[in-house]
Amino acid sequence: MIVIEASILSANYARLGEQAREAEAAGVDAIQIDVMDGSFVPDITFGPGVVRALRLLVSVPLDVDLMIVKPERHLAAFADAGADRLIAHWEACTHPYRVLQSIHELGVEAGVAIGPGTSLSSLEELLELVDMIQIMTVNPGWGGQPFLHSQLDKIRRLRHMLDERGLDVPIGVDGGIDTTTAPLVVSAGATMMVSGSSIYNDKASVAQNVAALRASVA
Question: Is 11:34 a contact under the CB 8 Å cutoff?
Answer without folding.
Answer: no
